[in-house]
Write a structure and sequence with these properties.
9-stranded mixed beta sheet; single chain; elongated; 506 residues
């Protein structure tokens, strides 16, 4: 059994990463066994870049610890209160090397089907070891444990052993113990693959290069299947809680206990922030330009700040400030829309050989390192991307912004047309009102003229009446004068004689 020798203690990138991620950096166990399949898998994903593979390997171990720590804190208060811990299907210690910084190694047991893995951990990490078996009925342990973790084990088990292994581990719990295990939820299966009615789907494919893939493949389950199995093996006594994508925002984590000492509602689980550097390049003025995205997917979560460190010293702070529809689409979360960021590092603050660390901090106090590597390596990894971000992501962003601007322009034009139409209607109404006003004024003038004419006629008539009255009075006076004259008196007497003689009338 040999150990990978990369002068890890002197590697500036590894030192910077462990300084950020380990509780006690000086005591952290860096060595990795050359047979470690998790390291080899990480190495194959980064095109044999050993430095990047190491950072990825350690980073996943730390993420698993952060998940387990939240559950342990909820149930026990802290790792100090855990009398015994079993890391089942432990591998070569990707997680355990972080666990021994939280609790004494003598209270930790590791178990794996690879005897070399168990040996490596017992000798190098100082923990207790149990070599596992291929058949669950042969796994005979004479003690119980207060905390059991089976990470990325049931995500590989076929149905015939899934239940048996779960039964074994449940039986190893102390009365107040908790069992944690991860699974691939059915949502992770290929879209064109139908989920069996029973709720478990097995495929004989895995990253393991040595295990029988009919016994260790890739398994997908739904929540109904898991809960029914747990109810069956516990006789209905188990309390079960599911944390969706609790392991590295990928596998679901199930928490099982025989006694519900604390309500699961008190388990306030939060995910790490996530992010990526899309562009890293030196400008013509030798400043370092960085551009990428950072997002938080927790309920009511947000990114408080992004920190850029050079050789462990903080040199820049920034926040996400522009929209990245591609990121929001990936997480299916509108809260991740405003996740784009960029910043410049002046040339006097950074050199190609310096170690650059970029980390995000959310409003829950959670921190996550997005990148740790030399500036030279980062620029080299992103060399196919232009300084101005002329990538598909950037183009898509620009196209989205242009489309948004076009929509806003069309809306503005539409509003302008509506306003113009209303203005024209108002102008027309105003002109109509003015015409009506002119007509009314004309009619008023005509009426006033008619009134003056009528008044004039009335005055003339009044004058005529006065004249007629005067003439009448004069006539009456003349008649009165005539009646009092001698002639009129003789005339009246004459007519009276004639009437008495029976002659004609007056």
């Amino acid at each position: 059994m040999s150990v990978i020798n990369l002068d890890l203690l002197e590697n500036p990138v590894i030192k910077a990463f462990i300084r950020e991620q380990a509780k006690f950096p000086a005591d952290f166990k860096l060595n990795i066994c050359e047979d470690d399949e998790m390291y080899l898998f990480a190495l194959s994903n980064v095109k044999d870049d050993r430095e990047r593979a190491l950072v990825r390997y350690y980073a996943i171990g730390r993420r698993i610890l952060d998940t387990v720590k939240q559950v342990v804190t909820w149930h026990f208060g802290s790792f100090e209160n855990v009398p015994s811990f079993l890391d089942f299907a432990c591998g070569y210690g990707r997680f355990t090397r972080f666990l021994i910084q939280e609790m004494p190694p003598e209270r930790i047991w590791v178990s794996d089907i690879y005897a070399n893995a168990v040996k490596f951990q017992t000798e190098y990490l100082g923990v207790n070891g149990i070599v596992s078996t291929g058949k669950p009925e042969n796994y005979l342990i004479d003690r119980k444990f207060d905390c059991i973790l089976a990470n990325s084990f049931f995500s590989h088990m076929p149905e015939r052993t899934f239940t048996s292994w779960l039964q074994n581990l449940y039986n190893l719990l102390t009365p107040n113990g908790i069992l944690m295990f991860s699974v691939h939820d059915e949502c992770l299966r290929a879209p064109n693959v139908e989920m069996p009615a029973k709720g478990i789907l097995f495929s004989p494919h895995s990253e393991s290069q040595s295990l029988d893939r009919e016994e260790y493949g890739t398994t997908y389950v739904n929540e109904k299947f898991v809960r029914e199995i747990l109810q069956e093996i516990s006789g209905g006594k188990a309390f079960v809680h599911r944390i969706k994508k609790g392991i590295c925002r990928f596998q679901d984590l199930y928490v099982v206990t025989q006694e519900l000492v604390r309500d699961f509602s008190q388990l306030k689980f939060t995910h790490h922030p996530e992010g990526y550097i899309d562009v890293a390049a030196f400008t013509n003025k030798e400043n370092l330009y960085l551009e990428g995205w950072v997002a938080d997917v927790n309920l009511d979560g947000r990114i408080e700040e992004l920190q850029v460190l050079v050789n462990g010293e903080l040199v820049q702070r920034c926040e996400p400030f522009y929209d990245r529809p591609d990121v929001a689409g990936h997480f299916q979360n509108d809260g991740a829309l405003q996740s784009g960021w960029n910043c410049y590092l002046p040339k006097n603050t950074v050199e190609p050989q310096d170690v650059l660390t970029v980390k995000a901090i959310n409003n829950y106090g959670g921190e996550w390192t997005i990148e740790t590597c030399t500036v030279e390596a980062l620029v080299s990894q992103r060399k196919s991307r232009s300084l101005l971000g002329e990538t598909k992501t950037k183009l898509k962003f620009i196209e989205t912004q242009l489309a948004s601007a076009k929509i806003e322009l069309e809306q503005s034009q539409s509003k302008l047309m509506i306003t113009q139409t209303k203005l024209e209607e108002s102008q027309t109404k105003l002109e109509e009102s003015q015409a009506q006003l002119v007509l009314a004024q004309t009619q008023l003038d005509q009426t006033q003229n008619q009134l003056v004419s009528v008044q004039t006629q009335a005055d003339q008539t009044q004058n005529q009446l006065i004249n007629v009255k005067k003439e009448l009075e004069q006539a009456q006076n003349r008649v009165l004068a005539m009646k009092t004259s001698k002639f009129w008196k003789l005339r009246s007497a004459w007519f009276q004689v004639r009437r008495s003689l029976g002659l004609a009338g007056d």
